[in-house]
Every structure is written in structure tokens, then in C-alpha cells.
């Protein structure tokens, strides 16, 4: 245990405390100091993420406030560099810093970042004056060494570059802040540019805040989701999955203006260096420098939110089995598009999920159940055990009976309900027969058998009667199967059952009228109608009235001559006999006859 060790000042870097120790004890050789502090002469004097901290803590003593975790959290840049890393990485870095710290900068991704660590320790001239006034000596502040801090978070003035370039001090030496290395005429890290100052000052304060109060750890997919949802809220998403990158880049650039030019590796000739801006709102797969996270967060914080059609959360849970039912406990809402509607998916931590949709008219639809979650199965078992009816259970669970039955089936829970209107339990199955014989056959309800011969006879008579009615009608109507079936209320029925109705089929053969017979009968009726004026009509008059063509002149002439010679213009009785009958059969009838012949062969 060291006999003396200096007390750290507010915001002081561990490197600075160790440097003051070396100066105070007038340590002659840096190797000797390293041995005193860490037990090894070859430990490197690291500014940001020092290692061998367990050994240091053992020598300085936890009683002096140098517990290992306290050193890491309060005196190193660990909280800044791991602010957006998953818990596993934070733990690994912490363990490495306690030990030898091998590959520390590689593992944190620091080595891969193009944003280099400051080449020299930085200081604020005004802070230096304050330190000397308050404590009698200057020291190196933690927040002044962050790559995203160009202005003093406290005084808002540009930081100055000390003469303490890391490469010149040696890897195993600690150099304290002093007027000698922190010269009055040293170069500021940036020239004052009033437009940029506001943004850079805010960035400096946010960076310092990361040291004091780092955010909760999130793994990369969670981080992606956080940024996506925030981008959606400020209207920078084209769809739930797609960022409007063009608009985002343009508005980001216009927001920060010239401030971006001062920051390390933010812009290059092509735009955003390495495409970091587009990448940070895509799927996170690896570490991104805290500077980029901070810039994005500041931009998003300052952007007005576009009001969501679903309102601002949190939203109520609708799970009737949860004790928080009706309370606004749903923090996150997912959205997607479906057939022109925006659908909001409300998922509660209890597992209950419902959706609401916003149509093109912007009106928010009613909640619709989607998923119950793990509370359903035990409750279902309980209500079944208690003998509740389906209706009662549905009401208690806030589900319609059909959905409840579906959920029970998907959970493979046997339930005694059916979807019959009463929802009553099914009749219990009959007890098993003791001798193992098969159960008696269930009685089946028989419809009365059809008396086909009687039906056939009746139908044939009705067809004959209906055909006469049709023939008597004016203007004439064709006697067809379709017309007869329609009038008998047996549409599409008779011919299909022709094999069972021989009398009916015979009657149809006798009765049906083919197109040419019908045309002839109709033309005869037209001639008679036209002749009622007392003059025999001309051929063209008949043709036009009957909708015939010149191809039917022979027919028209024959009928006109019949009307003249017989001097009796009236409807002739329909043709009878075998030939006429065959011609009169409809296509359907012909088909039936052919089928009948096939069967009889
Ligand atoms: Zn300052
Ligand atoms: Zn819930």
C-alpha cells in the first residue's frame, strides 16, 4: 500500500492523478513509478482506457476511493466509449481494464474507428485558471479528452492543444498539466465560428453527460429499433422498414451546418465519411463511434415529432386476465402497412397483442384481438374445470366464441364446448361396453324414399299441360326444357334425373320444339297479325317483323302462299310423328337419349 496518494479533483482523469502522484513524490524514474503503482515496470500510461487497475487499486487502497469499478467509472473514458455497446462488451472491457488490457482497443472497436484518439492532451485555459485558484495546481480533465468535445463543456471556449503529444512523452510516463505544457499561446483545436458554436457546445455537453450518466445498455437490434421508432416519429421513414435516406441526409446536414466540418471524420469529399449516417439507422451489427450516436440523438431530439395516427403512448393493455388491464402500460407500438392501411400492433409485456388500423380517411379503427399470451392456458383450464359455458368463458376472456375455440385448439386444450348456438357442452359419450364389443351403430335419420314411378307419371302430365299453356301464349314462346323446368319450379332438375323418369323423358321428346319449328310457328303468327288489317303483308314486312334474313325467303313465301291458298291464317297444329318428334328434341334431350343408349348397350 502506498503511503501517499493524491486525492482526485472533480472530473480528473486517472492519468492526471497518476501524473500528479509522480510529481508529488518526485519519482525519479518512470519505470520506478510504474512499479510503485502497478507492480510492473512495463505498464503503458494510457489516457482513455487504462489497464492493470486491480493492481493499482490494491496499491492505492479502496479506502482512498480507489475501488477498481469506481476508477473505471469515474476516472477513465470507459463510460463514453462503451455507452452504446452491449452489456457483454461492457463487461469484457471492464474485466480487461482490471487486468492486462490486451487487445482492449480492438475489442471495443476503437481501433477500427477512423476517428482517431486525440494526439495530445487538451485543456481549457479558463478551467486552468479556476483549477489553480481552487486547488493550487492544474490537472487534466476527463471530458476535455473526448473526440467529440472541441469546446469546454463548462466555459464554451475552444479547447487548446497542449504540448504533451503522446508520442513524445514515452509510453511509460505520466505528465501532469502545467503552465509549461499548457501554454497561453497554444493553438485552439478550432477557430471560432459562431454558426457552429451552438451545436459544438451542445455536443460537448452531451459527450460529458455520457461520462457522468451513461445510458442503459442495449444490444444492437434494440438500438436499431429505438432509432427506427424515433425516425418514424419525426417523419423520416418511407415505410416501417425503410429510412428516407435522402431526406434524412439533407435535413441532418442542414441542421448542423458548418459544425460538421469541424468534427473529426464526419464528412469527406463524398459526403458522410464511410456512409456512417445511413449505416447508423440501418441494422446495427457492430459498434459505431459515440460521436455518431450523439450527433444522431441531438438531431432527433430537436426535430418536431409528426403526430402519430395512433396517438402518443403508452397505450392501454386489453388483457382481461392481467391486473394492469386498462392501464397504459404498452410502451412500444409497431407499425406496418396492409392494403393501403397503416396497422398499429400493440404488444404488451404480458403477451397480449391487439391491432388497430388507420384507413386512407385517417380514421383509427377499433381494436382487434391478435394474441393472448401465456395467461390464457391456465385460465382456460380453470373455466373448463368450473363447468363454465362457452358464452360465459368468451365474455370473461373478451373473445368471441369462435376465437376462443380456435385458441383452445391451438393450445391443444380439450374443451367440452361446440359452436352450436347454445354453446352448451356436448352430450357425454356413452359408457364403454364392458365386454369390449363395438358400440351400437348410431341411428341415422332416413328421409322418406322417393316414389320415382309416381313422380314420373305426375311430372309427364304436368309437362304436357305446361307445354299446351306455352303454345297458347302470344307472342309465341319456344317450348324448351329450360322454360318447362322454370315453370314447374324444377330448374336444372328433370334432365339430370332422366334415367329415373322414362315417361317424363318420352313426354319431353313429344313436346319440345326445336328452333326451326319455333321459327316457323312464330312467323305464321306474325303473318296472321299483319293480315289482321285486311291486307296480306309483303315478304319484307314479314322478314323485318320476324327478325329473319333473306336466306329465309323460301320459308316466308311458303307460309304466305299457305295463308293465301288455304285462306285460313291460323296456327297449324304441331308436327307429329316419328321424324318430327326426333327433330323436336332439344339438345339436352338428345344427349340423354345418347347416354341411355350407351347404358343399354
Ligand atoms: Zn473550461
Ligand atoms: Zn398486458
TrEMBL record:
Protein name: Uncharacterized protein
Region of interest (Disordered), ranges: 416-453
Domain TniQ: 4-159
Start and end residues of each Transposon Tn7 transposition protein TnsD C-terminal domain: 205-420
Residue ranges, compositional bias (Basic and acidic residues): 440-453
Transmembrane stretches, start-end: none
Domain of life according to the entry: Bacteria
Organism field: Sphingomonas parva
